[in-house]
Backbone:
């Protein structure tokens, strides 16, 4: 069972759907390089899966039928080749050599080998629960001639070898294809878990589902996947439907195993989730006698006389930052930006611990966005792009010289905002994944209206 689980997880590499939102907005293509990788790392678990038990061989060489134990010593798979079958799935070819011990003479068992070629056609389709489903409509075993493992070590008649070959072939012709079929059934169990909820944050998740049947060519398998974000078990739906998302064939890194296209909708939905959750709001509290955050009434009083009049003694000041609108992500070739429009209320702590509103500001902040993949999560970091735009929304302290206040806000507002926003982007959004599977040397490319993750794949057994 362990062997079946491991090879099943390896084969998921071929069928893994990735990311999206409530509309179709993510496309993943797994290329021939991914099949070559699975072919290489799949040899060892396939060898274990093909290691089966044989019944006793009834030796008729004497006057009385003699039950003879036949034990499989090992299976060696020097060649495992996988290639795409257009509009169907994946074709499997495996060349294996089986070694057996025949205990005709318990003191000196006979060791024989037999070459076998396995062919299987793996169909990839869409299941009723919107997950990929694989099946094997055709599987064949081709057996070579049995031979002595070490010619001349133990004498045996050609007739015995012929009868022994017939016995082994009769058993393995059924069991080998059955072993492969069991691996496929285990694979379907793993693929079924892809519809589960993957955590984004403490109260948010993302759920993936297959949008339609896969597109399979001679060069790749392409899966269209829907994804839906949830907040407190309620789905996050974009206000307007968008057009279907398509990724050109030649994007990303040439020769990559996996090419994952993420549309504008993916970013819009993630930002809408953060906005609805209130994760983007923050409080920035000033400290008295602090050079790092000189946000207090004494400092403000030097810029706004009415603040000095109302607060002769220095008191801490709090900036309550709230985003009234969802941040806007813009994707242009080799350039990704975010636009934030927070509303800031400036409050002073009175002597009775109550908060008094001084003034409020409408703010526009443009951020440069850099994306990367860590583990199985798409993450990001930002930096301020250009000047922060500040305008007075309301004031309880008379007129305000924004040129002076702008300098102070640049000191006490920009860094806490970036730290807070980058911490959220550092949590990231999980891409679909299976146990022990990671992206290897992933690179993120930005194009007009979408991003592409171009990556290798790495299987790590724990």
Residues:
């Amino acid at each position: 069972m362990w062997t079946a689980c491991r090879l099943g997880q390896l084969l998921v590499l071929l069928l893994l759907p990735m990311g999206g939102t409530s509309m179709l907005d993510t496309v993943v293509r797994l290329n021939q390089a991914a099949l070559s990788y699975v072919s290489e790392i799949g040899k060892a678990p396939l060898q274990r899966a093909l290691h089966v038990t044989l019944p006793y061989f009834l030796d008729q060489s004497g006057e009385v039928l003699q039950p003879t134990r036949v034990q499989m010593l090992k299976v060696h798979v020097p060649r495992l080749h996988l290639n795409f079958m257009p509009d169907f799935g994946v074709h499997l070819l495996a060349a294996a050599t089986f070694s057996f011990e025949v205990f005709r003479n318990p003191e000196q068992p006979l060791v024989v080998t037999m070459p076998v070629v396995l062919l299987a056609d793996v169909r990839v389709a869409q299941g009723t629960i919107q997950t990929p489903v694989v099946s094997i409509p055709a599987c064949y075993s081709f057996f070579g001639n049995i031979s002595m493992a070490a010619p001349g070590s133990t004498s045996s008649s050609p007739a015995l070898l012929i009868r022994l070959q017939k016995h082994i072939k009769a058993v393995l012709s059924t069991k080998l294809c059955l072993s492969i079929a069991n691996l496929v059934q285990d694979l379907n169990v793993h693929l079924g878990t892809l519809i589960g909820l993957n955590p984004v944050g403490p109260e948010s998740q993302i759920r993936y589902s297959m949008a339609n049947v896969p597109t399979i060519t001679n060069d790749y398998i392409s899966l269209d996947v829907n994804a839906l974000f949830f907040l407190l078990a309620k789905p996050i739906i974009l206000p307007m439907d968008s057009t279907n998302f398509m990724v050109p064939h030649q994007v990303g890194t040439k020769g990559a195993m996996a090419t994952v296209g993420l549309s504008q909708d993916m970013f819009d939905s993630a930002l809408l989730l953060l906005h609805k959750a209130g994760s983007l709001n923050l409080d920035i509290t000033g400290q008295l006698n602090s050079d790092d955050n000189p946000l207090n009434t004494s400092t403000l009083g030097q810029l706004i006389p009415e603040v000095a009049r109302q607060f002769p003694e220095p008191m801490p000041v709090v900036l309550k930052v709230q985003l009234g609108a969802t941040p806007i992500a813009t994707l242009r070739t080799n350039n990704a930006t975010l636009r934030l429009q927070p509303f800031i209320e400036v409050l002073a702590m009175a002597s009775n611990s109550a908060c008094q509103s001084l003034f409020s500001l409408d703010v526009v902040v443009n951020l440069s966005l850099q994306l990367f993949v860590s583990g199985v999560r798409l993450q990001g970091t930002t930096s301020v792009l250009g000047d922060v735009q500040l305008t007075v929304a309301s004031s309880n302290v008379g007129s305000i010289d924004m040129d002076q206040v702008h300098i102070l806000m640049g000191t006490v507002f920009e860094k806490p905002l970036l730290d807070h926003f980058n911490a959220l982007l550092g949590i990231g959004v999980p891409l679909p994944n299976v146990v022990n599977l990671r992206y290897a040397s992933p690179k993120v490319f930005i194009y007009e209206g979408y991003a592409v993750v171009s990556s290798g794949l790495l299987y790590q057994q724990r």
